[in-house]
Design brief:
The structure is a single chain. The chain has 560 residues and is α+β, with helices and mostly antiparallel strands. It is built from 19 helices and ten strands. The protein has a four-stranded antiparallel β-sheet with strand order 8-3-10-9. Strands 5-4-7-6 form a four-stranded antiparallel β-sheet. It is extended, with a radius of gyration of 34 Å.
Length: 560
């Protein structure tokens, strides 16, 4: 089998990767770095070295991205977020750097062959390594000539070396015997408890408007109301309809070609309109009459309008791009005579944009991408690329930035008042909880049951029969259960706040079992905690490696 695997690696390895990417469901874009275009000042480029890899260099970065994606697929992992992807990417670079430093060797041929059989991507229906699955997988990739030669072999070797490092960093997984015993006892301890709830939404204390208290609250929290940096900008719009007169009349051949390319869209619209007309009419077609297929003649008017709109949009896009490119190529200064002349010859004008923050860019009618592009502009790069807007395309003209500022109390009084009242309500709610706990304890000492005491105080009470943590009632709040596990019988907990509700827990009884040394649950707990300790140790070391590899400026920011 070893020679068979070698044969397929040598024969098909260079075809495998790019085709494999087509099968990967989750793909993420690693957004570190600068990507200069025609409007980018290339002189501003800076290296971003991380263990010798320049993460601002697209070629180096793209290779690492491909390796992470391929490795995840081979190991049957699902990358569910961009953060998770970036963690895997930086950890891969750091661990391979450590492997190089201490001289972890690549696997020999036999070791690599054995390692391949452990990959999830090559398992059959029975969960074991399948030669057929491997062959089918490799053969399905070999038709792609753009694959980087030998990349799958490189990734497998790197993964093997990383695993060797990981097993050493993780260690055996140390734990105290008492830890496993405590977890097993906690899971099997029998609890009998009741809860009482106070609804936060229904709690409506009277909060008087105190100008002095409001002013003090504003002074203590004024940074909360700081207006972030804002952009001052305008834009030039290239509307589709202003280019209608520049279009020659479409030929029948062009219209038919447009119809063929977008047939499904025109047919769907025609049939929807026909169904609507039929619904509003008393005439109904016979059930046995087969509907004739939709032809070009049936939708010619819609095709002509669609084609005209598409051509107008194409010319508007070209005009916007040409405008931005001319600013770049001729190094035209903002507000110069040449700039104004270009506006005139392009038959466009500046439209002012109200100053906006980065967070506010998505709340404007204009394209969020267009507005956000301004935060990358400055100096000679005062114009954006062309971005689509409603009915055309636009180029943003950056004019400056307004520094962050803190408005006066008078300017944000309504917002400050709402925040002050909300915080006062939370404070009074917690104060109410402290008083209720004391009253519940007093009533219990007088001989009342917990349920009677809670209902007397206007709380919603609920009792739960004896249960263990493993079979806890689904209606029992998880925070209340967790709190009960650390309480003693007869105790009432302080008020817990969970999901807009204040919860008191009364632990009526607690039965802690004796656990034998050979108990199966105890053995499982020991194994689980050992694996978790090993994982935590390895992950902590990898995170430390990543931190140490970051540029000095980044580590200083994280340390703060």
């Amino acid at each position: 089998m070893i020679s068979w695997i070698q044969h397929h690696l040598i024969r098909h390895g260079r075809w495998i990767f790019l085709s494999l990417l087509a099968l990967i469901i989750v793909a993420f874009v690693f957004t570190i770095g600068n990507t200069p275009g025609c409007t980018t000042d290339r002189s501003g480029y800076q290296e971003n070295l991380f263990y010798g890899i320049d993460l601002n260099a697209s070629r180096e970065r793209d290779v690492i991205i491909e390796k992470v994606q391929l490795s995840a697929y081979l190991n049957g992992q699902q990358i569910r977020s961009d953060e998770q992807f970036q963690n895997q990417l930086t950890s891969r670079i750091a661990l391979l750097h450590l492997a190089d430093e201490i001289g972890v060797p690549a696997p020999d041929q036999q070791t690599l062959a054995d390692y391949i059989t452990t990959k999830n991507a090559f398992r059959g229906a029975d969960g074991e390594f399948s030669a057929d699955a491997y062959t089918s997988f490799v053969d399905s990739m070999e038709s792609n000539p753009r694959s980087q030669q030998g990349l799958i072999l490189i990734v497998l070797e790197e993964d093997y070396r990383m695993n060797q490092i990981g097993s050493v960093l993780s260690g055996p997984g140390y734990l105290l015997p008492s830890e496993a015993l405590a977890q097993t006892q906690r899971n099997r301890t029998k609890l009998t408890l009741a809860t009482a709830e106070l609804d936060y939404a229904a709690f409506t204390p009277e909060i008087p408007e105190d100008k002095a208290a409001l002013s003090e609250y504003y002074e203590n929290n004024k940074l909360r109301y700081e207006i972030p940096e804002r952009i001052q900008a305008s834009y030039v719009a290239f509307k589709n309809d202003q280019y209608a007169t520049q279009l020659p009349e479409a030929s029948e051949a062009e219209l038919r070609e447009h119809f063929i390319a977008n047939r499904a869209q025109f047919v769907a619209e025609f049939e929807a309109n026909k169904a609507s007309s039929t619904k509003n009419s008393d005439d109904t077609a016979s059930d046995d009459t087969a509907e004739a297929p939709v032809t070009f003649a049936d939708v010619r008017e819609a095709v002509a309008q669609s084609y005209l709109t598409e051509q107008e949009s194409r010319i508007a896009n070209q005009a916007a791009q040409a405008f931005a490119y001319k600013l770049y190529r001729d190094e035209i200064k903002r507000d110069s005579a040449a700039f104004n002349e270009l506006l005139n010859t392009s038959n466009v004008s500046l439209t002012k944009i109200e100053p906006y923050t980065l967070a506010g860019a998505s709340q404007r009618a204009l394209s969020a991408e267009l507005l956000e592009s301004a935060f990358q502009l400055g100096g000679n790069r005062y114009f954006s690329d062309a971005y689509p807007i409603d009915g055309g395309f636009a180029v943003l003209i950056y004019q400056g930035r307004i520094a962050p500022e803190v408005p006066s109390l008078e300017e944000v009084q309504d917002e400050v008042l709402a925040d002050y009242q909300a915080e006062e309500k939370r404070r009074l709610f917690n104060e109410k909880g402290e008083n209720l706990q004391a009253e519940l304890e007093a009533k219990l000492s007088e001989g009342s049951t917990f349920t009677e005491a809670a209902e007397t105080l206007g709380l919603n009470a609920q009792s739960f029969e004896t249960f263990s943590a493993q079979d806890a009632p689904t209606e029992l709040n998880r925070s209340a259960l967790q709190k009960a596990q650390s309480m003693q019988a007869g105790e009432i907990s302080p008020m817990l706040t969970s999901g807009g509700t204040g919860i008191f827990v009364y632990l009526e009884n607690k039965e802690i079992p004796e656990i034998a040394n050979d108990d199966e649950d105890l053995t499982q707990a020991e194994e689980y905690l050992a694996r978790f300790a090993a994982y935590t140790s390895g992950t902590s070391f990898a995170n430390e490696l990543v931190f140490r590899g970051l540029p000095d400026t980044s580590t200083e920011e994280l340390a703060e």
